[in-house]
Specification:
This protein is of the alpha+beta class and 304 residues long. The protein is built from 11 helices and 7 strands. It is 42% helix and 16% strand. The longest helix has 21 residues.
Length: 304
C-alpha cells in the first residue's frame, strides 16, 4: 500500500463490512453447534470490546478524509475525539505497534489544530498552515496500521466473509499512466506515493533514486485560487491553451515546496492544480518546462 493516501486511504471504508458482526457470538438456538470452534468463540468474546472500539474509531475516518477542505472547527473536534478513542483503547499485543502508528497520525492532526485557531466557515487548509507540516510523515505508518487492523477485523471480529472491492486507480495517482511518465523515467517508472488529504486535496509523487520527480497536485478551484493563483509570483511562462495555465519554477505540494524543477498551473471545472517535474537532483528548465506542460495537458484532459 502506498504512503499518504494520506488521508484519502485513511478515510476509505477499510473496516466496514468486516465489522458488521463485530463482537457478536454464535446464534443461540438452544443447542450446541458442533461445527463452532471453542477457541474461535473465546477469541471473539475476548476481542468484542476492542472490535467495538474499531467500529467506533472508523466512524471518524470519513471526517478526516476531507479534513483539509472541511470546516476547521468540525475537523478539529473529530480529530480530538478520534485521538481520545485511540489512546484509551487496549489493542492486542499483535496490533500494539500498528495502533500506535494510527494514533500518532491523529495526535499530529490534533496537535496541529492546538497550535492554530480553528474558525467556523474556514477550511482546515486555511487555518493550519505550517502547523500541519508534521502530519504527512505520520500518514504512511498510519495507513499500514489501518491495513493491519482491517486484517484483524476480518479474522477476529466475526465479519470476515465480505471481500473488499479491488480499488481502481483514481485520484492524483490515477492521472498519469506509465506511458505518460516514461518521458521522465523511461521503462523504470517508480511506484507512486499518494500524499492526498482527501478528494479535494489530492497529491501524488513519483520519484526515483536519481532525484527525478513528477508531482501531480490538485484541490478545489476556490482553494487553488487563494492558495496559488492569488499568492504566486510572476510566472516564467503563460499558456493560452490551458485555463490559468502558468509555468513557475519549483515543485509545489499540498504542504511542501521545492525550488528545483518546473511546475505548470491549471484550472479545469471545479478544480485547480499543479503538475511539477524535475530531471535529476537539480533539474533543467529547458528540459523540465515543456514536459511539465505536456503532463499538465494530460491531467487537464482526464479531469475534464
Amino acid at each position: 500500500m502506498n504512503s499518504l493516501t494520506r488521508i484519502g486511504t485513511l478515510a476509505a471504508p477499510l473496516l466496514l463490512c468486516a465489522l458488521a458482526g463485530c463482537g457478536e457470538g454464535p446464534p443461540d438456538d438452544g443447542g450446541e453447534d458442533a461445527s463452532a470452534s471453542p477457541s474461535a468463540t473465546e477469541a471473539s468474546d475476548a476481542g468484542g470490546d476492542f472490535c467495538s472500539t474499531i467500529t467506533e474509531v472508523s466512524g471518524y475516518f470519513g471526517l478526516i478524509e476531507d479534513g483539509l477542505v472541511s470546516d476547521s472547527v468540525e475537523t478539529a473536534a473529530s480529530a480530538a475525539e478520534a485521538r481520545g478513542l485511540l489512546e484509551a483503547a487496549e489493542p492486542p499485543a499483535e496490533l500494539a505497534e500498528d495502533w500506535a502508528d494510527i494514533t500518532a497520525f491523529y495526535a499530529a492532526v490534533d496537535d496541529a489544530f492546538a497550535e492554530s485557531d480553528p474558525e467556523a466557515g474556514k477550511s482546515s487548509f486555511e487555518v493550519l498552515g505550517d502547523a500541519a507540516l508534521t502530519v504527512p510523515d505520520t500518514v504512511a505508518p498510519a495507513e499500514n496500521g489501518i491495513a493491519a487492523v482491517e486484517d484483524y477485523a476480518e479474522t477476529d471480529c466475526g465479519g470476515g466473509t465480505a471481500e473488499a472491492e479491488a480499488a481502481e486507480p483514481d485520484g492524483a495517482c490515477g492521472m498519469l499512466t506509465d506511458a505518460d511518465l516514461s518521458v521522465m523515467f523511461g521503462d523504470d517508472v517508480p511506484e507512486p506515493e499518494d500524499r492526498s488529504w482527501g478528494p479535494d486535496a489530492q497529491e501524488c509523487v513519483w520519484e526515483n533514486a536519481d532525484g527525478t520527480i513528477v508531482s501531480v497536485m490538485y484541490q478545489s478551484r476556490e482553494d487553488f485560487a487563494s492558495n496559488f493563483l492569488e499568492s504566486s509570483g510572476e510566472p516564467r511562462l503563460t499558456l493560452d491553451h490551458i485555463e490559468n495555465g502558468q509555468v513557475h519554477p519549483g515543485i509545489y505540494g499540498l504542504m511542501s515546496f521545492d525550488t528545483r524543477g518546473s511546475s505548470t498551473y491549471f484550472t479545469v471545472g471545479d478544480r485547480g492544480g499543479v503538475v511539477g517535474v524535475r530531471l535529476g537532483e537539480e533539474g533543467t528548465p529547458a528540459h523540465d518546462d515543456p514536459i511539465s506542460v505536456e503532463l499538465a495537458e494530460k491531467v487537464v484532459d482526464r479531469l475534464s
